[in-house]
């Protein structure tokens, strides 16, 4: 089917903003030209892509499917463009990273500082999402790479996985549960205490749920949060026992605000890693950043 790619470009901008006026402003063409392009594309594809009213624009079922593909293709093209422009120099350009706020704060910060000092003219863009969400951003081309907690059996056939650091998870508690300090505790004993954990649809929560399931017990967290920092703070004030990664709690341990419970059953280790897309070439700047990670 021979369709002018400019029509897809117009469709992308309309679907992205759900607005004919915003699309016309971005493309520097009239709203009438935008409308004509959409009508022509719908005629070529023999289906309705957009529903238009006086107040809003929405995507049809076919429009949603088409946008998923166009959105990915658009980001792939932009990535390729950036790769060519940066081929002979890394003094300009940008790096787009997907990572959780915890990984940014407790792992990436020193590397961000080092990269910025070496390449001050490269702009760093960070999108904070959960690890599963970062993978979706990478698949759609919104980020160059993601630094995430790698699941035990990752289904990343379209990704390259590079392990950076071993992660150990622990249960922590504050002074309210001082009587548990130094004692060997079975995971089954934790059923008697309030458990605090990250909310669902995060890699750490998935890991927690699988660990509890493998121990043949049922534990339902009393409090579910979207922040590891809050899990620590709530453990400190005695609201319960929190499940967190050990590599960012050293400062709190040294201060005596919290302590690590000695669990009889082994908690398996996992990995922190950098994920790239096999089909999206990395820019020079992105490759340099990953090299700094080690």
From TrEMBL:
MF terms in GO: DNA-binding transcription factor activity; transcription cis-regulatory region binding
Top-rank taxon: Bacteria
Protein name: HTH-type transcriptional activator CmpR
Family per similarity comment: Belongs to the LysR transcriptional regulatory family.
UniProt organism field: Oxobacter pfennigii
Keyword NAD: no
InterPro entries found in the cross-reference section: LysR_HTH_N (IPR000847), LysR_subst-bd (IPR005119), WH-like_DNA-bd_sf (IPR036388), WH_DNA-bd_sf (IPR036390)
Residue ranges occupied by any HTH lysR-type domain in the UniProt entry: 3-60
Keywords in alphabetical order: DNA-binding, Transcription, Transcription regulation
């Amino acid at each position: 089917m021979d369709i002018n790619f400019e029509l897809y470009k117009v469709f992308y901008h309309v679907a992205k903003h759900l607005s004919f006026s915003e699309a016309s402003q971005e493309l520097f063409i009239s709203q009438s030209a935008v409308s004509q392009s959409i009508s022509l594309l719908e005629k070529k594809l023999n289906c309705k892509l957009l529903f238009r009213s006086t107040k809003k624009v929405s995507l049809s079922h076919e429009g949603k499917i088409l946008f998923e593909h166009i959105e990915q293709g658009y980001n792939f093209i932009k990535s390729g463009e950036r790769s060519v422009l940066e081929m002979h120099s890394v003094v300009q350009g940008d790096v787009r990273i997907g990572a959780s706020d915890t990984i940014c704060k407790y792992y990436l910060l020193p590397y961000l500082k080092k990269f910025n000092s070496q390449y001050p003219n490269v702009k760093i863009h960070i999108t904070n999402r959960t690890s599963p969400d970062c993978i979706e951003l990478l698949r759609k081309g919104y980020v160059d790479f993601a630094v995430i907690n790698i699941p035990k059996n990752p289904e990343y056939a379209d990704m390259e996985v590079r392990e950076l650091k071993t992660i150990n998870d622990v249960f922590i508690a504050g002074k309210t549960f001082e009587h548990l300090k130094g004692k060997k505790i079975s995971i089954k004993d934790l059923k008697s205490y309030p458990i605090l954990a990250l909310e669902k649809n995060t890699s750490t929560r998935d890991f927690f749920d699988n660990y509890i399931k493998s121990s043949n017990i049922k534990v339902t967290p009393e409090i579910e949060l979207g922040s590891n920092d809050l899990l620590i703070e709530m453990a400190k004030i005695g609201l319960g026992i929190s499940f967190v990664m050990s590599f960012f709690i050293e400062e709190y341990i040294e201060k005596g605000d919290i302590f690590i419970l000695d669990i009889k059953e082994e908690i398996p280790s996992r990995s922190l890693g950098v994920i790239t897309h096999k089909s999206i070439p990395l820019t020079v700047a992105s490759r340099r950043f990953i090299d700094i990670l080690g």
